[in-house]
Amino acid sequence: MWNIIRILENYAEVILPLIVLLFYLLNWNKIKLAELPILLFLCVNIVIYSWGDYLSTNYRNNLYVYHFAAFKNFFFFCWILYKHVKPINQKILAFLTSLLLIFCVINIYTFEPIDTFPSLSASISLTTITILGLLFCLKLAKVDEIMYFQKLPIFWFVAAFIIYSAITDLIYLSYNYFTDIEDKVSKYFWQMESFANLAMCTLIILGLSCYKKKYTPPSLLL
């Protein structure tokens, strides 16, 4: 039993997205490509973290994977929001995505090389996701669709990213500091990250569940 728990804990970033992907595919006839960003987000997570776990299992440096992950979360979050915001805000999302990509590249060549953990870029990405997500929820509270928010997939998806980012932000920001002090402390960080993954994947499933009944996309443009 404990071995199963350890496996789930150690490979949560692969197993949990895989479960959500299976749920998506089981409901393919109702969802199809309506949530393409979520579908690709799950696939990319499974691929990059499987590769990261493979490298770690073989005692090879896998930290460069997290440089990609730092940008990946922000990119897919902005893509998810894109069709729900006004054209002017779509341009802002595209600008912020490009800006973060440039910063991540500069960060690799200046502060955090490719073979180190990207605490700075990851924290900036997660903080920005949290702020944008909260602003979206604030705008959503001012439109009629708030009366049935629990039926809106976008609400659950945004909530998933907000909770994941809020939990993991401080973990990523302080990771380098604590691993330099004691490895026993850093392992608790990854346990918290596994919990954040669980919360995120659960909320994404709730969002996809909205398609089980007849679903009409909201007309809101924020």
Short description:
With 222 residues, this protein is mostly helical.
Order of helices and strands: HHHHHHHHH
CATH architecture: Up-down Bundle
The total number of structural domains is: 1
- Regions with little confidence, pLDDT below 50 for 5+ residues: none
* Main CATH class: Mainly Alpha
CA-atom Rg in angstroms: 18 Å
User: Rough shape?
Assistant: globular
From the N-terminal CA to the C-terminal CA, the straight-line distance is 47 Å
Q: Helix/strand/pairing class, anyone? A: mainly alpha
> CATH topology, anyone?
Rhopdopsin 7-helix transmembrane proteins
Strand count, sense and barrel status of the largest sheet are: none
Plain-language structure description:
This protein is an all-alpha fold. It has one domain: Rhopdopsin 7-helix transmembrane proteins. The chain is 77% helix and 0% strand. The chain contains nine helices and no strands. Helix 2 packs antiparallel against helix 4. It is globular, with a radius of gyration of 18 Å.
Characteristics of this structure?
globular, mainly alpha, Rhopdopsin 7-helix transmembrane proteins
Topology:
Elements: H1 2-10, H2 12-26, H3 28-31, H4 36-57, H5 63-82, H6 87-109, H7 119-140, H8 153-181, H9 183-209
Helix pairs in contact: 2-4, 2-9, 4-5, 5-6, 5-7, 5-8, 6-7, 7-8, 8-9
